[in-house]
Amino acid sequence: MTLPPDRETARSRAELPVRFRLVQLSAGKFAAVFLAACVCSGFLAGFLAAPSQAQIEFAACGDSNDYACGHLTVPLDPSGQTAGAVTLAIRRHRAPAPSSAPAGNDAVIALAGGPGQAAIPLADTFAQVLGPIVSTRDLIVYDQRGTGLSGALSCAAFEKPKPHQRAGVAIPTCANQIGARRAYFTTTQSVTDIEAIRQAGGYDKLVLYGTSYGTRVAEQYAQDYPTHVEALILDSVVPPVGQVSDSLQLPTFAAVPRILSQLCADGACAHISRHPSDDLRLLIARMHGKPLRTRWIDARGRAHELSVSSDDLLNILVTGDFNLSLRVDFPAAVRSAFDGDYAALGRLAERLKGATGSDESDINGELYATTVCEEQTFPWDRAAAVSARLKQVETYLNGLPRASIAPFGPRNVQDLSDASLCAFWPFATRAPELDAAPLPNVPTLILSGADDLRTPTAQAHAVAAQIPDAQLLVVPDVGHAVLLNDFTTCSADALKAFFAGTPIKSCKGAPTVPRAFLGFLSPSPIAPRRLTAVTVPNGTHGLPGRTLEAVALTLRDVSHQLLLQGSFTKNALRAGGLRGGSVRASSAGIVLRALSYVPGVTVSGHFVHVHGTLHSGGSAAARGVLHMDGKRLSGVLGGKHVQLNDFAGLDSTLLASGARAVSAIHFG
């Protein structure tokens, strides 16, 4: 559910909030599908309520033989007091082998995240992760009201934001364009829609599978219609509405030290730092609320200036829920920055721009703002003026124990949360009351990624405690959206066992992602700040030896960056060096152009498979020529013969195929 702050953090409270600007970038994608809500309202005004005995008329989908397409018109206001209607777009995948009752007349409804994410584009993904469960039950996927093909909300202020657009103008303008209808696009109405789909589809009970925000919808449906729930599958749990701490994402901040400790468990960061959380705390303190200025090198070897704020540091960690490569480079980048070398941090911050997670793609920004602002609880009086709301939330955040949000501060909490968005929102509903009602004791499987920062495991434990017989599985080395991102079979096996009524096994002993299945995702080392800091390899001496080791370090960094950072252009994979130069990998081999990892040392050359010739250069290096042959790197540097054996060198064939495989991995 959490959407991290945009890279270019606006410090002025008058600008659109950090958290929201990332959402609005993708909001326009579905705007053309339906007219803006404010335009549609006149057409829909004639509908007061959907017929109680409505049925969904399914027909063949033009773009798929696996799904039938249908629509269901439901009241805008389920109470019928406000005129209007919403037409829900629905896809149904028939169970190929219906079982005997009860599953034979039950269905699975898959709920997307956000709020605001369209679910229909994810239908095949849902079917894949749910596996055998949907072989005996129909799978129903629908775009929740206000998203995708179900009357996507739209307003010009969000579709075409102007540079430095003032939140005090854009947000209320959009809310007023949506109009009074905005009161009916919260979780409560989505739950009523699900019940309408169940009735119209002729199903007795539902299995509700929700990820992230979808778990909140599933939880509320279970509260409102417990007798119609066969089971809940809650993946990456968002608690029921009501807690201020949840609205401000405080569990995320509490989990940061634990996530860093887990990343560095078993001595994985011994070559970097003994206490990565302390490094982060000291670096943020040294920044004094101001961004660091550094640079990054693009795929053509050109340098670009950029700034890195404390919000960016938080953003890197949160986005790491989906893109593990951001986290494995984080401890070394922070430690290097604390020591005065900002190059690795600059490269990491630039990589962040293209590393959005799946629950941030296809998000309808208008629906997101409408739902979170209307139904979340913030520490302010809704009747107060905007300036008073901002002051009230600031006072609340400043009163928090600093240890509860360390190493970050109150401003980071405000930027990550929706407070800076919703403070400007003209509310159409009253503040929600704290939902203290226990969740019903329906069969429930809760899945939580041990490395999840968006919906930390503490939230999963809290929800599990409200459902007496709930079963909770914590999956190591996985962030957000467990079933999508678990590279082991642990969570899939748990899902099968849950519906088979057999014991669910823990994930202990299962291979872990970073250090076994994807070994290249172990925390990366600190880059040397100068050639004299490079250790001379055995059998070599002086400047030639250090240069040889610097070349080896450069080649290892090439492998790491091509796999995790490189971008595909014209059937080739490209990346910039840490300090300069570039590298290009294709089926024809790998070409290095003045690539620099250690200051004052450049490496140029060409590889085919595991064979290549390199030229060392740079102001600090011993110049010469090296040859790589399998695991041996040898040649003449500074007039002296040097050799490095058992070197895990570049393999252009593996890199070309491996990088494509890694780029296809669904980190998010």
Provide a descriptive summary of the structure in words:
By secondary structure, the protein is an alpha+beta fold. The strands form three sheets. The protein has a nine-stranded mixed β-sheet with strand order 1-2-3-5-4-6-7-10-11, with helices on both faces. Strands 12-13-14-15-16-17-18-19-20 form a nine-stranded antiparallel β-sheet, with helices on one face. Helix 13 (330-338) packs across helix 14. The longest helix is centred in the C-terminal third of the chain and has 23 residues, at 542-564. The two termini are 12 Å apart.
What's the quick description here?
With 668 residues, this protein is α+β, with helices and mostly antiparallel strands.
Q: Describe the main β-sheet briefly.
A: 9 strands, mixed
Q: Which spans of ≥5 residues are poorly predicted at pLDDT below 50?
A: 1-52, 357-361, 512-519, 658-668
The whole-angstrom Rg is: 27 Å
Count of helices?
25
The outline comes out as globular
Sum up the structure in keywords:
668 residues, 20 strands, 19% strand, globular, disordered C terminus
